[in-house]
């Protein structure tokens, strides 16, 4: 008991000595703002730092990540969504405060699951709401049926995100009771909500795997969606409608001399890409010891030195393939095909039920959705395809807009994140050689040149 108490006190001393430090520098790089983070190393703390940056809608263009003993040092090259450096001193000060506060709060938790509980609830503003977690088989009109049930049961949808991948759907919906204006506390009503939503998700084809969970706890929405789809094993299912897309290139190698497994990722760059990868590695119980992230044009190249939380590298071919599958799935989940429709209108009871019913009646399937409300306004984004997952013709889109309101529903159709082009063919043609032969040279060179790690020689 005495020895255990000494260890506990030593752990507390280490945490106090290694108070997180954040430095934001605009002088070093012409095209990006540098965010330097130093902190005591704990499993999941890298994810916390990346999560803060992505939640602030910052784009991470480059990153150098290293840990040495009990200490980790990260350098992130970030821009705003328009590709500009951060110049507003109030924004810079706010970023520093948020990162330090987040990392300090993380230091008091030992469990890696603490990242998605109380500390994110306040920042996301979801206190006083009831969280609904839904997973099941995707099908035309499913979201319409879900919102219809919630409207019928007098539940107001405040925030929601929905992802689909490989024929599966995961959604996290935050609701409040229409009458009380706060979270639902009636146990009978909660049971009724669970039962009816579970029946909707089951449909005729998903008797076993459809799941509905009601929770008063608030988590980090996007991390929880990754966890839900991972638990649903979407990565093992046959890809749906990927004839026009190119999957991310993921390779896993051994570096036996140092006891690392090296993960290389090559794909189109996009916002929150690093978060999606680090989130998945963390939840799979891997620790990132060193990493480098680089973007050239619209291509992202990321390399990670990982071990299990027990300090061992990947040990079998089956495990190697599982890591590859899971990372590919994590990258693809956010890369929805389809036309982007943005709904901005005065919020009202049953609005989402009516809008998604119009989608269903016109043969539109919602591949991804982001629902939010600000004051009395509904600000919703839908990515829609036809029933088979193909692009929707403009005539159908205009008919839907006329029914919902041309001024309320606008079209914004960005190019597909994984649309195949000549640059893809060039960059992936030699992946079996160029990526495999790198053996982590990029990360070792960059980290050593920056002085973040000692020489490996």
From TrEMBL:
Pfam families the UniProt entry points to: ACT, ACT_6
CDD domains: ACT_ACR_1, ACT_ACR_3, ACT_ACR_4
Keyword terms, alphabetized: Repeat
Domain ACT: residue ranges: 131-208, 340-419
Protein name: ACT domain-containing protein ACR
Function of the molecule: Binds amino acids.
GO MF, any single term: amino acid binding
Annotated source species: Macleaya cordata
InterPro entries: ACR1-12 (IPR040217), ACT-like_dom_sf (IPR045865), ACT_dom (IPR002912)
PROSITE patterns hit by this protein: ACT
SUPFAM superfamilies (UniProt xref): ACT-like
């Amino acid at each position: 008991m005495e020895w255990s108490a000494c260890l506990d006190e030593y752990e507390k001393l280490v945490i106090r000595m290694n108070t997180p430090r954040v430095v934001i520098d605009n002088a070093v790089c012409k095209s990006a703002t540098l965010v330097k983070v130093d902190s005591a190393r704990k499993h999941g703390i890298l994810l916390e730092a990346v999560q803060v940056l992505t939640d602030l809608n910052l784009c991470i263009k480059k990153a150098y990540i290293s840990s040495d003993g009990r200490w980790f040092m990260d350098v992130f090259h970030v821009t705003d969504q328009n590709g500009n450096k951060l110049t507003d001193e109030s924004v810079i000060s706010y970023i520093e405060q948020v990162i330090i506060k987040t990392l300090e709060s993380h230091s008091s938790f030992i469990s890696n699951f603490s990242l998605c509980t109380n500390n994110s609830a306040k920042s996301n503003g979801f206190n006083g709401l009831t969280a609904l977690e839904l997973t099941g088989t995707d099908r035309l009109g499913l979201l319409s049926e879900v919102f219809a049930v919630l409207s019928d049961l007098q539940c107001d949808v405040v925030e929601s995100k929905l992802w689909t991948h490989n024929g599966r759907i995961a959604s996290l919906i935050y609701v409040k009771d229409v009458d009380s204006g706060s979270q639902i506390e009636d146990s009978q009503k909660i049971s009724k909500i669970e039962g009816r939503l579970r029946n909707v998700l089951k449909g005729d084809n998903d008797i076993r795997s459809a799941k509905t969970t009601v929770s008063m706890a608030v988590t980090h929405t996007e991390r929880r969606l990754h966890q839900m789809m991972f638990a649903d094993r979407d990565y093992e299912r046959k890809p749906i409608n990927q004839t026009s897309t190119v999957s991310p290139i993921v390779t896993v190698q051994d570096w036996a001399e140092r006891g690392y497994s090296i993960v290389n990722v090559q794909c189109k760059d996009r916002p929150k890409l690093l978060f999606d990868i680090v989130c998945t590695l963390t939840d799979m119980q891997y620790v990132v010891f060193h990493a480098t992230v680089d973007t050239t044009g619209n291509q992202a190249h990321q390399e990670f030195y990982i071990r299990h939380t027990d300090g061992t590298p990947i040990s079998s071919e089956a495990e190697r393939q599982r890591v590859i599958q899971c990372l590919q799935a994590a990258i693809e989940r956010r890369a929805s095909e389809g036309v982007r429709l943005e709904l901005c209108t005065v919020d009202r009871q049953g609005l989402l039920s009516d809008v998604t019913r119009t989608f269903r009646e016109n043969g539109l399937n919602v591949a991804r959705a982001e629902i939010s409300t600000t004051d009395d306004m509904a600000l919703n984004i839908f990515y829609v395809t036809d029933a088979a997952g193909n692009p929707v013709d403009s005539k159908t889109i205009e008919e839907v807009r006329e029914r919902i309101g041309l001024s309320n529903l606008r079209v914004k159709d960005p190019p597909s994140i994984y649309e195949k082009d000549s640059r893809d063919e060039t960059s992936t043609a030699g992946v079996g050689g160029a990526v495999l032969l790198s053996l982590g040279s990029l990360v070792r060179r960059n980290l050593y040149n920056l002085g973040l790690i000692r020489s490996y020689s």
